[in-house]
Amino acid sequence: xxxxxxxxxxxxxxxxxxxxxxxxxxxxxxxxxxxxxxxxxxxxxxxxxxxxxxxxxxxxxxxxxxxxxxxxxxxxxxxxxxxxxxxxxxxxxxxxxxxxxxxxxxxxxxxxxxxxxxxxxxx
Length: 123
Hints:
four-stranded antiparallel beta sheet, mainly beta, seven-stranded mixed beta sheet, single chain, 11 strands
């Protein structure tokens, strides 16, 4: 069955960096576009970034553009999110997801989503 397992979250000071990973299994990872999404306390599921199957094209929500980088290693079935210049408002549970549908930046549905990794940005 499809499994997505995120890791790499933690507590970081404003301005700091984290690299999230998502290990995928149970499907042909290299043939699917993938996404990172997040959910802050009391808010809905918010789109962060997409990457196509080959990794050749990426798209970002405006609020992370220039700070976050999505990438993938299809040989390792792994999705990444490099997060730099982190802000307190980036505090959220971060999920990797497959088959995301969204309306603006808000996720309407996803076919599969991992269990999430918590990112807390605080001094």
